[in-house]
Amino acid sequence: AFAWHAAAGLLHAVRRGPARGDLRPYNAVVVGCGNGQQWELALGLLDDMACWRLRADTVTYNAALSATEAGGQWERAVALLVRMRRQRVEADGISYLSAIRACIVCARWQNMFSILREMRRRGADHKPEVYHAAASGYAHCRKWSSATVLLADQLGLGIVPDAVSYNA
C-alpha cells in the first residue's frame, strides 16, 4: 500500500512543478498502483492523463495491464489492449503477457487464444514467457488440444518450451 501512496504524493508534487509534461512520474504512479493492487486507481489515472495533455505510452499501459492482472480483471486487460491499438500505442510482449495472466486468473482460455492470435498477427515480440503462461492457462482450464497446438507454435517459432508447456 505504501508504494502507491508514495507515488501519488510524487505525482501531486510534479503536477505543480516545472516537469508537468514529463510522463515518468505518471508511469511511476501507475506502477505503484499496480504493485499496491489498486487497479481502479491505475485505470483512473490512465484516463486522467488526457486531461493533463499527456499521451500514455507502452510503459504506462503495461503498468496498467499489470494492475489488471494483479486484480484479476481480464475484461479490463482486454479492453486496454484494444485501447492501445486505437491510440496507436504499440503493445509488446509484456503487454500480452499481463493480459494473458489476467485471463488465467479467471480461467478465460478463449480470451487467451484471441490475445495470442492478435500478438502473432501484429508481429509483436514473441516472448517465451507469453507462451509459457498461455500453456499454464490451458493446462489450468484442461484444454489439452489447445495446449498441444500452442506447443507446436512454440517449436515453430524457435521458442524452447518449458516444463509446463510439455506437461500441458
Automatic annotation (TrEMBL):
<dbReference type="InterPro" id="IPR011990">
    <property type="entry name" value="TPR-like_helical_dom_sf"/>
</dbReference>
<feature type="repeat" description="PPR">
    <location>
        <begin position="57"/>
        <end position="91"/>
    </location>
</feature>
<dbReference type="InterPro" id="IPR002885">
    <property type="entry name" value="PPR_rpt"/>
</dbReference>
<keyword id="KW-0677">Repeat</keyword>
<dbReference type="Pfam" id="PF01535">
    <property type="entry name" value="PPR"/>
</dbReference>
<protein>
    <recommendedName>
        <fullName>Pentacotripeptide-repeat region of PRORP domain-containing protein</fullName>
    </recommendedName>
</protein>
